[in-house]
From TrEMBL:
Protein name per UniProt: Malate dehydrogenase
Keyword Oxidoreductase: yes
Lineage summary: Bacteria, Pseudomonadati, Pseudomonadota, Betaproteobacteria, Burkholderiales
SUPFAM superfamilies, alphabetized: LDH C-terminal domain-like, NAD(P)-binding Rossmann-fold domains
Every Lactate/malate dehydrogenase N-terminal domain range: 6-150
Example of a GO biological process term: tricarboxylic acid cycle
Protein's organism: Malikia spinosa
Length: 328
C-alpha cells in the first residue's frame, strides 16, 4: 500500500537555493523514493517573486514526478505552514562580497519571529524544522523561541554544508574517498568561528588525525580555509552557494527522517547542556539519527585546543543571541 503524503513547506521557494532544492524533494531524494510529498511553497507577497514561484511550479509540474502529490503557492506563513510535517526555512537575504553572515541578522532576524509564530500556530505538532537562511543558528534560535508550543528540539540549523565541506577537504588531504570518512563533526556556529574536528575521524578504521599528523596544517590551513569557504564561493561566483546548500539541506532532512545507520553527522540543535554549552544555544554537535530522532554523540574528550575553539564559537553565538533578545 502506498504511503500517505507528507507536507513539506519551503520558504524562499523562488530563490536560488529553492530552485536547486524543490526538484530533489519532489523526486524523493529527501524523504525516500516511496514517500509522496505535498509542497507548500512560500514567497514574499511581491508580484515578481510570486510570478517567479509560479514559473518554478510550472517546471515542477512538467517533471511529472510520481511522488509529487500536490503543490501550493503561498504569500503568508500562516497558510504555508498549515499542518506541515517538515519546514525548510530558506527565504531570507543572502550576503554579498565582503559581508559577514552575522551582518544579516538585522535584515533577516525578524522573518524568523513571524515564521516561528506561524509554525507554532498551524504546523503539525511534530514538525521538523531546518533553518538555512543566515545567520542560520541564531535565526533558528529566534524561530524556536517564537514557537513555545512546539518541541524546541525540533528546530535545527544547517551545519551540514560545513560538515560536507570538511569531509571533502580531508578526503583531498589524505587521498582517500569521502564516503569512507566516519566520525567527523563541526562544533558551533555556521560562521568562520565554527570548529571542524577530525580528532575522532576514521577512514577504513584508521585515525585521520594520525594519517594527517600535522597540527600546523590543522590550525593554519585547514580551519581557516574551511571557515572561509562560503566567502570564497561568493567571491568566485558573485553569488552565495546554492546547489551545495540545497544538497546539504537534503542530507540534513533525509538523515533526520530516515536515520544515519550509526554514522555521525553534524546538526545545529538547541543544546541541553551537552559539552558545557548552555541550554538552548543553537550549536553544531555531532549526532546520529534513528527513528526520526537525533542523538548527540556524548562523552568525547575535548582537549585544550578544541576547548578554545569551542569557547570562541560559543561566545559568538551567545553575543548574537543577546543581540536578538528584542525579537524573542
Ligand atoms: N546555512 C547555510 O549553510 C547556507 C548556505 C547557503 C545559503 N544560505 C542562506 O540561505 C538564504 C537564501 O539564499 P538564496 O541564495 O536562496 O537567496 P535568494 O536571494 O536567491 O533567495 C531567497 C528567496 O527568499 C525569498 N524571501 C525573502 N524573505 C522571505 C520571507 N520572509 N518569506 C519567504 N520568502 C522570503 C526571496 O524573495 C527570495 O526569492 C540566505 O540567507 C543565504 O545566506 C545558508
Ligand atoms: O557564506 C554564505 O553567506 C552562504 C553560506 O552560508 C555558505 O556557507 O556558503
Amino acid at each position: 500500500m502506498s504511503k500517505k503524503p507528507v507536507r513539506v513547506a519551503v520558504t524562499g521557494a523562488a530563490g536560488q537555493i529553492g530552485y536547486a532544492l524543490l526538484f530533489r524533494i519532489a523526486s524523493g531524494e529527501m524523504l525516500g523514493k516511496d514517500q509522496p510529498v505535498i509542497l507548500q511553497l512560500l514567497e514574499v507577497p511581491v508580484e515578481k517573486a510570486q510570478q517567479a514561484l509560479k514559473g518554478v511550479m510550472m517546471e515542477l509540474e512538467d517533471c511529472a514526478f510520481p511522488l509529487l502529490a500536490g503543490m501550493e503557492a503561498h504569500s503568508d506563513p500562516m497558510t504555508a505552514f498549515k499542518d506541515t510535517d517538515y519546514a525548510l526555512l530558506v527565504g531570507s537575504r543572502p550576503r554579498g562580497p565582503g559581508m559577514e553572515r552575522a551582518e544579516l541578522l538585522a535584515i533577516n532576524g525578524a522573518i524568523f519571529t513571524a515564521q516561528g509564530q506561524a509554525l507554532n500556530a498551524v504546523a503539525s505538532r511534530d514538525v521538523k524544522v531546518l533553518v538555512v537562511g543566515n545567520p542560520a543558528n541564531t535565526n533558528a534560535y529566534i524561530a524556536m523561541k517564537s514557537a513555545p508550543d512546539l518541541k524546541p528540539g525540533n528546530f535545527t540549523a544547517m551545519l551540514r554544508l560545513d560538515h560536507n565541506r570538511a569531509a571533502s577537504q580531508i578526503a583531498a588531504k589524505t587521498g582517500k574517498a569521502v564516503a569512507d570518512i566516519e566520525q567527523l563533526c563541526v562544533w558551533g556556529n555556521h560562521s568562520p568561528t565554527m570548529y571542524a574536528d577530525y580528532r575522532f575521524a576514521t577512514i577504513n578504521g584508521e585515525s585521520v588525525k594520525d594519517m594527517i599528523n600535522d597540527q600546523d596544517w590543522n590550525a593554519n590551513v585547514f580551519l581557516p580555509t574551511f571557515g572561509k569557504r562560503g566567502a570564497a564561493i561568493i567571491e568566485a561566483r558573485g553569488l552565495s552557494s546554492a546547489a551545495s546548500a540545497a544538497n546539504a539541506a537534503i542530507d540534513h532532512m533525509r538523515d533526520w527522517a530516515l536515520g544515519t545507520n550509526g554514522k555521525w553527522v553534524t546538526m545545529g540543535i538547541p543544546s541541553q547542556g551537552w559539552y558545557g554549552i548552555p541550554k538552548d544555544v543553537m550549536f553544531g554537535f555531532p549526532v546520529t539519527c534513528e527513528n526520526g530522532e537525533y542523538k548527540v554523540v556524548e562523552g568525547l574528550e575535548i582537549d585544550e585546543f578544541s576547548q578554545a575553539c569551542i569557547a570562541k564559537t560559543l561566545k559568538e553565538l551567545t553575543d548574537e543571541q543577546a543581540g536578538v533578545a528584542h525579537l524573542v
